[in-house]
Amino acid sequence: MRGQNLATKGIFLFFLCSFCFLTSVLLENSSANSQNYVCPADLETLTNLLLRDLPSYANRVTSRSNPINSPSGTYVILAGKPEFAPLTLGPGVYSPAAPVEGEGVPKQIFFTTLERQYLANRANLLQNYHWLFLVKSNSGWRSVMLYSQLGSYPSANPPTAPRESSTGIIGQSVQIWLRDCRAGVIKP
Question: What is the pLDDT, as a whole number, of residue 153?
Fold first, then answer.
């Protein structure tokens, strides 16, 4: 009986040591393969990476918000090249009192998205226009607000009036992407 307990304890210790060894090997391999990338400080580099990944982020947000097996929805096909020339923020010519660079100053980015919307038995192409405001903080870039105009593709009618869309699909996607960028998981 006593010999059986020793054999059981020996088997248990063998499996425990094997588990510990395999766990340490897996942790070493995962830390060697998963590098932490640094979120770009340069606005243009950051924006190019954001727009590269935006369709996949937006489509995941769309998939999470649609009921299972729902054929309807809007899916982003691609995001266009960004423009950085700021618009005036009020009537007249915009000229700040003193040009201020650094933290807390919102940066304006303009981009378009080409989207496919599924309704019943047909698909429509949409070209949407986005005006994104980002601010750089101590912890990285953050989204301040997003305005969007919806249009058809090819443009038969003028786009809709701009609306605040920070909580929409594109706004949520930008916020999630920036969070991932600050966490160091976005590959350049």
Answer: 83
